[in-house]
Amino acid sequence: MNPQETRQHLRELASNLQWTWNHRDRALLDRLAPPAAGEHPLTVVDRLSDDDLAALADDEVLLADLAEAVTALRSRVSGPPTPDVAYFSPEFGISETLPQYSGGLGILAGDHLKAASDLGLRLAGVGLFYRHGFFRQEIVDGSQGERVETHHAERLGAIDTGLMVEVPMPDRTVVARVWRFEVGRVSLLALDCDVGANAEADRAITDRLYSGDRQHRLEQELVLGVGGARAVAALGWVPGVNHLNEGHAGFLLLELIDREISAGATTIAEALDRVRSRVLFTTHTPVPAGIDRFDRDLIEPYLQLWADRWGVDIDEVLALGRDPDAGLAVFNMAALCLAAASRANGVSRLHGEVSRELFASVPGGSTITSITNGVHARTWVSPRLQNLFDEMLGPRWDDGEATTWSRVGDLDAVEVRAQRRDTQRGLIDLVGARCGTEIDPDSLIIGFARRFATYKRADLLLRHPERLAAILADTDRPVHFVFAGKAHPADVPGKALLAAIVAHGSTPEANGRFTFLPDYDMAVARAMYHGCDVWLNTPVRPHEASGTSGEKAALNGALNCSILDGWWAEMSDGRNGFDIALHDPKVGFADLDDAERDLGESANALDRIIEMAAEFHADGVGNVSAAWVERMLHAWSTLGPRVTAGRMVGDYERLLYRPMLDAR
After folding, report:
1. I need a labelling partner for 467 at 20 to 30 A (CA). Which of 44, 146, 344, 558 fits?
2. In what order do the strands lie in the sheet with 327-332?
3. For the stretch 591-623, what's the b/e string if a residue is b when 16 or more beta carbons lie within 10 angstroms of its beta carbon?
4. What is the pLDDT of residues 433-461, one digit of tens each?
């Protein structure tokens, strides 16, 4: 293999994002040179000089491994490129090196694409390319600070399709370039408005995630929905299912309705009836505040373009998103999606129930079903534990195959303890490097990492500071808390909550065992999932639609300690983790006094932590107890088949995609 062929093969391997979950490919790329934190392997490849490539020619083992990896990749991605399902989402969390995500919605979307690739589904993702991604977090004087970085799609493995799509806006047309990323067998289209044909203000439409005012958000969603639909059509794709991951891409429906009117539908209602069989809507919000709603004064000029095109009164277009409370004064994106979808689902069993109540007055709301979220196992489980599962359970564990997980009881307790100690080292080293804090490896390490929204109550344990201080001072049963996460830059209460956590870590009462780990991203998340013994989850029930961080931790052997909300409400059996009792489950949620509820549930959480520390250290400090290992094995056997994205996407295929496709 000559140097140019070597570079070509390395670029081919680094450009397909399969390396984000194929650890053999990632290890091969890492052998070139240690990448800087957050650096895409393609950057490392492109930095290789001719002399570097010539030197690689002498490494026969690496070249043989490279040839084998490229052959395997080509074989894997040689399936049919035309998707049956177009999966629309405003963000996709594939890797920290491709920072096109802000939190759980994007991580779920990335896991959905990866699982679809693993299962060989004919599916493609459709999103936006954000030049500045989401913000990077800094802690300045105890508070969150934000900085942004600039990213270039072509340096991150994107393929320029050569396509430009137009999106109508008041008094102008916005143009978006269509990039394509390869995610294993699956393509991800990403629309980018930073092109010379646009005015400077319009080039900033796709500048960053969730950072602008309402008009900026509206225009982003028009590019995602209308532009995304046009990009799919420009590629010659005719998906039988358009899957809307939340309502942000709902303006796709304007484009689909327009096509039906152009094809002969005489009314909007008739066009909508023709469209409905091709639309699936997944809602992720359990509260009205989580729904995208646009005031009529803002959205009317944008919708007037479509009213004029269809020759109808503007009220007829506004009625597509009629708000159940404000009528035509507000355009409700969830109402738009529900009214236009043949099927809709929530993301956990409890969330399905809550959604049917929340949307009871919206057409389609009463028929919302549920598919509980799952996580992509090969992305989140530590390489060492993956090897152990591959050897002891067989190759289907990552798909959630039940028979495979039934073999968990055969795992050796000594090996289970050893892999936990080994994988914890990454977290301990990361905390030491970023925070200057030393974690005692014999501690019970309790992790909390998620968006700092107030309903998630990161500060719940601080409601009883004396009891928390006693736990942190215990030398016989040492406990160390690690917190991580970001607050939205405009979320003042969320940022105050984060500052309270940071401040508590520097108090004498914290005893050096209460740490905030800054600059949360997918890499930090993996370190925490690999290193924590317990995953703490303290939302206000029923505000956690699903929550997937605890599922990732569970696959890595951490035990969940959680309020019975989201996915945990249906999967806890009392022995595969620890339930935090509600303050008074007999009282309706709306009737509880917030302060009283938080005090009660804080006390319940601290009781559970004391119980966990006693069980973890029952056989002495430094020796994870037999009872704890037994509980870990039980958690794997009961949760493993249920929390993977393989199971989740398989459910979508079996219960929603396939019936919709077969009915056409």
Report:
1. 558
2. 293-295, 327-332, 322-323
3. ebeeeebbebbbbbbbebbbebbebbbeeeeee
4. 999 999 999 999 999 999 999 999 999 99
In the DSSP assignment, the letter for residue 581 is: -
Q: For residue 270, how many other CB atoms are within 10 A of its CB?
A: 14
* Helical packing angle, 594-616 and 465-473, nearest 10°: 10
Enter the tokens of residue 496: 């105050």
* Two structure tokens written together for 42: 């393609």
User: Is 447 in a helix, a strand, or coil?
Assistant: strand
* Strand order, beta sheet including 514-516: 514-516, 479-484, 444-449, 534-537, 559-563, 577-580
* pLDDT tens, position by position, 560-577: 999 999 999 999 999 999
Long-range contacts formed by 27-31: CB under 8 A, 24+ apart: 28/62, 28/65, 28/66, 28/69, 31/62
Q: Strand pairing partners for 178?
A: 191
Question: 399 with 410: CB under 8 angstroms?
Answer: no
DSSP state of 225: I
In angstroms, the CA 615 to CA 618 distance is 5
407 in Cβ contact with 415 (< 8 Å): no
Q: Does residue 2 have a pLDDT over 90?
A: no
The Cα 52–Cα 7 span in angstroms is 10
Q: ω before 34 within 30° of 0 (cis)?
A: no
Task: Identify residue 589 by its one-letter amino acid code.
Answer: F
Q: Three-state DSSP class for 339? A: helix
DSSP 612-629: HHHHHTTT-TTS--HHHH
Asked if residues 144 and 498 have their Cβ atoms less than 8 Å apart, the reply is yes
Rounded to 5 degrees, φ, ψ at 142 are 85, 0
What's 558's DSSP letter? P
Please list the alpha-helical segments (H only) found in 191-295.
Answer: 200-203, 214-222, 228-234, 252-262, 268-276
Scan for tokens 């600059």, then name that residue.
519
Q: How far apart are CA 42 and CA 612, in angstroms?
A: 44
Q: For residue 474, give the amino acid letter.
A: D
- DSSP letter, residue 17: G
Q: Are the C-beta atoms of 22 and 41 separated by less than 8 Å?
A: no
In angstroms, the CA 346 to CA 537 distance is 20
- Which residues have CB under 8 Å from 549's CB, separation 6+? 104, 449, 450, 525, 529, 535, 537
Distance between CA atoms of residues 496 and 346, nearest Å: 30
In order of their start, the domains of the chain are 3-76 (no CATH), 85-293+333-373+649-662 (3.40.50.2000), 392-643 (3.40.50.2000)
pLDDT tens column, 88-105: 999 999 999 999 999 899
218 contact partners, CB below 8 Å, separation of at least 6: 294, 298, 299, 302
